[in-house]
Amino acid sequence: MAVNYTPVSQVLSVEGVRLSAVAAGIRYKDREDLLLIEIAEGSSVAGVFTQNRFCAAPVLLCREHLTRHTPRFLVINSGNANAGTGERGLASAREICQSLADLTGLSPEQILPFSTGVIGEQLPVAPFKDSFPSAIANLAQDNWSAAARAIMTTDTLPKAISKKLTLGGKEITLTGIAKGAGMIEPNMATMLAYVATDALIEQELLQSMLKRSADLSFNSITVDGDTSTNDALVLIATGKAGVLVKDGDIELFQQTLNELCHYLAQAIIRDAEGATKFVTLSVESAPDLETARAIAFTVARSPLVKTALFASDPNWGRILAAIGRSPVKRLDISKLSLWLGDTHLIQAGEPVETYTEQAGQLEMDKQEITIRIELNDGDAATAVWTSDLSHDYVTINAEYRS
Amino acid sequence: MAVNYTPVSQVLSVEGVRLSAVAAGIRYKDREDLLLIEIAEGSSVAGVFTQNRFCAAPVLLCREHLTRHTPRFLVINSGNANAGTGERGLASAREICQSLADLTGLSPEQILPFSTGVIGEQLPVAPFKDSFPSAIANLAQDNWSAAARAIMTTDTLPKAISKKLTLGGKEITLTGIAKGAGMIEPNMATMLAYVATDALIEQELLQSMLKRSADLSFNSITVDGDTSTNDALVLIATGKAGVLVKDGDIELFQQTLNELCHYLAQAIIRDAEGATKFVTLSVESAPDLETARAIAFTVARSPLVKTALFASDPNWGRILAAIGRSPVKRLDISKLSLWLGDTHLIQAGEPVETYTEQAGQLEMDKQEITIRIELNDGDAATAVWTSDLSHDYVTINAEYRS
Questions:
Q1: A2 lies in some domain
Q2: Same-domain check for residues B205 and B282
């Protein structure tokens, strides 16, 4: 059901990162639901986490551990978010880290836990303890595809991508995986993404590059306006390729990282719960970025716009109504231009005389739709990606516990 | 399909107000879609309008006319919103006012136009002109029920209510009608409501009383977060009962007006598009009203909370996640308490040990559900009403042009 999305066939290994996906039986039966990612010593690790105040126990622990050590293991489970679980949930997450630490001779603070799935149920610790020995035994560099499948919840397809670039005459690799299908909204949503590179990047630079890429990708998508308690995006730089990213190379690496995150974020929208359309909201010539994003997200979240998209109905009045209620200080509708694909709907706030319903219908019949809003009131621009609101969205969210 | 809502059988006339509903064929066939409300000379009239910047042509004209004259006629059509119609739409609305002015010997500025229905289509003027003579001929005091039906769009039932109270030994009457089923959100939404009383109330007081009632009723409901281009709420005080509302009577009248608006606003939610639940979001002991309302509306608008309500799923994790992403400055989750009806879910930010899924299920199986959030961090409180997100909501909005 995903919109123009087919998983790539080849996902490249990254030296210094080994993975292992096992069926621990945490919630799902007969599928891999526990992922271990081992990070070589000497790596740098950066992370971006949910801004939700009811953040999950593992997120609390990640933040705590990251301030103390560079992580050596990531433990990720699907099926249970360990969120809304109070002190007991936090104790469970600690116990899981301690258990893996005991088996690997590490400090528990060198381990970062991640969970995704249903909120409000206690996370059982035993499946982790029981599965760790075999998971450790199976760690391998070429397990990225299995890893992408193990972190899925309502996703219908795994999301993974690799990129190569040459820096200082040496080839370096970036590989990333992500999951997320609902509760998707800026500031990370129910989204987990792990990206690794064999380049060597100093920790502070790594963190700032990750934040920059996240804002242009994972923080620019919305399915339903609901941000999650568990979102996390981690970037690992192992340095095993023997190339330090610095000076003039920074922009090139950033660009590649942006493209990778962009691909994964769009894959999340293409596979969004019940999605039948892939929609780009482009706001241009805005007074500032904040205004552009407020308008883009107001339209992207509007249930009336989203149901019209589902119906392939060129009901542009709903787009105008959503623009008009955007929480922005400055909006001069007499300058505004609105386009649906290549079809011009509104010019200087007035309906375009040559517009025909037939032209609008042709645009709306497409699976990929771009709504372009020109404010003609400045130089800022943004793009936001979203899906439509379909019967399947209601079915999935009325029937699935997330 | 409305949730615990049956139209009242008796709607009382208000001396000084005559109404007439006719089938003008503006969009719908074989149903009344044009309403005239005639207001006696010497009345006071107050109005509250949409804050949407893409407000409709009739709203622009209402605002303009209200600054110049006390209105003598309201002209209301359903089926076409005359929004997003640019200068031509404004000219049509002016022509409609002029036409009625010519027939009644009034100035066009004594006439207020209102439209509701599909956005982005030009409003035909001819059906108005053709229907005005018979509409004028049929004006009568006892046409409130027909009026309530004539303004319906996706409403399944008309909304009307009367109240009586005694002031200064004399009985006075308040009667109101409303429409609205989708695009419902504070600052008026696609909602039209007309309230009349035979009390005499000075204009400035009337406006402030109307605003106060609106905030507690029509500005405290949401169906889908989409505010409309056309919302209007009008309060007419004819003075025909010969009682001036002043001093000690003001609170009593305000209270009755609040109850009337409250009834109509709740009727809109009970008859909301696809609604199967009537949901009250109560936020208590908040630091301030703004915080309380931001949290209440964030939960009330959450598609994930709304689909869980539709599924009767006690998935309180989604409520926590919505609270946690509310755009508020101050939120101490370690003080927060959460109740579903009489069932206690969260105490001081931690899951209540005695909570059982069965207890939650019993609450969610009800048609009327109260979600109560105690912040234990101040004295402010608010209540907001909403509906669930059902398959019928998607069907209605994918198939109906609004």
A1: no
A2: no
